[in-house]
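Q: Hi! First time doing this. I have a protein sequence and I read that you can turn it into a structure. Is that right? Here it is:
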Amino acid sequence: MKLRLACADYTFPILPHDQVLQVIAMLGLKGVNVALFEDRSHLQPSSEFANVRRSARRLKKRLDDNGLVAADIFLQLALDLNSRAINHPRPQVRRLAREAFLQALEYAVECGSKHLTGLPGVLYEGESRRDCVARAQEELAWRLEQANEHRIVFAIEPHIGSFSDTPLRTARLVRDVPGLTLSLDFSHFYPRGFAEDQMEDLIQYATHFHARAASRTNPQATLPENTLNWKRIFRTMKKTGYGGWIEFEYCWSPETTEVDNISETVRGRDYFRTLFKSVAG
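A: Yes, that's right. Below is the predicted 3D structure, encoded as structure tokens:
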């Protein structure tokens, strides 16, 4: 296992994007999780996909200028979870989501990313879980085929609000869609009381990892408040041969200002480097 540390560009939302990249480089991190979140992130699908190659090459130059690489492209087509979900009941919406996914793949190739993350899908009122999940599985299988053709690793982030909102449901989804991988974020599980061994069982399917301090009552905490056993997580990563990036994903909004994103990213960076040495040794 090699320690590769990255940072989400949406960790610093009120800075211009070129300054965000400069900050990440100054923090001594090499990878960037590039968010394509409609109505939320610096770079958005509606603008970046107007001319995919030009937009991606512009990003690639900014990354190169700062000595950075795109660790992941994270695609979300709407601010809400339902209106553009990959398993939307309307075929027209699913078709548009497929078109956007193909554009995201081209974008990833042009900016040098080897990894693309999406969301698994949601449950729709008036439909059975079985039907919603089956439709999502079909869409995910198609995305895997397309990603493989582009030599891109495709992953989904199991998250609160999706149908893949528990470790058990996530493991079942990965087994039912052969080849599907995970961008894991334990903060979607840990504060809800799931046991660490249940969460760690998913690491064998992970190709990307979102990291931040968390506790049983807080999905985003400071490092002194952290109770998530990162040493145990690193040991599991080593055991399973995890080879992806570990990305610091501290989030900020005007309503959530308890955590200093720069300070916690630096403290997490130093803690992980020390922890990695102890586990690797």
